[in-house]
Amino acid sequence: MRETTPLLPAGYEISTDPGRLDHARIHHWLSTDAYWAIGRSREKQDLAIAGSLNFGVYEQASGAQHAYARVVTDHADFAWLCDVYVDRPARGKSLGTALVAAVRDELAPYGLRRILLATADAHGVYEKVGFRPLDVPDHWMALTLQ
Per-10-residue mean pLDDT for the chain, 146 residues long? Predict the structure, then answer.
């Protein structure tokens, strides 16, 4: 994957290297501050990371992680973008938009039919990189197990 994207502010880089992920920080962000993952256990988060394509945004000078996203995909037809999070002090710098653009660009060569996501409050971020509401939402269903 390219380590930079034109939308990314100077001093940051994006990587899919799983060795760079700060598992403790990701778990803290999601389990305490992300409405969709409040209370998620560290064990469950680590399992999710292990089964996903993960993206991190890092400050180049310190190497500290400032944002995260993961993708669940078959690498052929479908992907689900989830757990997109930007650390509160780093918000407002376009890191989220750059991260989502990097996800889109990383997945483009696979020729996926569809990348889905769900959001309650960040529609504008995703629209900037091409996401749109479902054309026929009545065709979609969900099975909620927990």
Answer: 64 97 98 97 98 98 98 97 98 96 96 96 93 94 89
With contact defined as beta carbons under 8 Å apart, do 101 and 129 qualify?
A: yes
> Nearest-CA neighbor of 102 among 135, 74, 125?
125
Q: Which residue has the tokens 């099975």?
A: 143
Provide the pairing of β-strand 53-59 with 78-86.
unpaired
Looking at residue 75, the DSSP 8-state letter turns out to be S
Strand-pairing partners, residue 85, are: 68
Options 3.40.50.11540, 2.120.10.10, 3.30.2320.80, 3.40.630.30; CATH for 12-133 is 3.40.630.30
Strand order in the sheet with 12-15: 12-15, 53-59, 65-73, 78-86, 114-116
For residues 122 and 146, give the distance between their C-alpha atoms in angstroms, rounded to a whole number.
Answer: 24
- Reported pTM: 0.92
Question: What's the confidence (pLDDT) of residue 3?
Answer: 43
